[in-house]
Amino acid sequence: MSSRQNKIQNYIHELTEKIISENLFEEICGADASNCSLDLHLDRANVSKEMNTLWKNGDLIKIHGRPVYYLDYQSLITHYPDSFLSLIHIWRCRRIAL
Questions:
Q1: 84 falls in which pLDDT band (50, 70, 90)?
Q2: By CB neighbour count within 10 A (0-12 exposed, 13-18 middle, 19+ buried), where does 8 fall?
Q3: Cα(22)–Cα(30) distance, rounded to whole angstroms?
Q4: CA 15/CA 97 separation, integer angstroms
Q5: N or C: which end of the chain has fewer CB within 10 A?
Q6: Is 41 exposed, middle or buried (0-12, 13-18, 19+ CB in 10 A)?
Q7: What's the Cα-to-Cα distance from 72 to each of 41, 91, 98, rounded to whole Å?
């Protein structure tokens, strides 16, 4: 994993942990490429590309819309082990493998 990917994944992990711990789901939907790029001082297009790569690798949950939001998969399944997120992850991985 590249240094840029690590920075982005850490950023999304920390934001997801904050959303969970402070119950901010109604105020913050997740991390988007624009805000992430501004906070990390990286090019937005590169951040978007890395976020998609992390999602394809199963490290992030992708919330479709405009803008697209991402949450840290590991944080979500740690805090919500009985949720359906694991099934989404498994289904997506199977779909990619086909």
A1: low
A2: buried
A3: 13
A4: 29
A5: C
A6: exposed
A7: 20, 17, 24
Task: Fill in the DSSP letter of residue 66.
Answer: S
47, 7 contact by CB (below 8 A):
no
Instruction: Look up tokens 């997740």; give the residue.
Output: 30
The single residue listed with the structure tokens 């590309």 is 49
The helix (H) or strand (E) run that includes residue 62 is strand 60-63
Interior CA angle at 69 toward 68 and 75, to 5°? 155
Residue type (1 letter), 35: N
Specify the length of the chain in residues: 98
pLDDT of 94 over the 70 cut: no
Q: Please give the model's pTM, rounded to 2 decimal places.
A: 0.80
Token pair recorded at residue 8: 């982005």
pLDDT > 60? residue 98: no
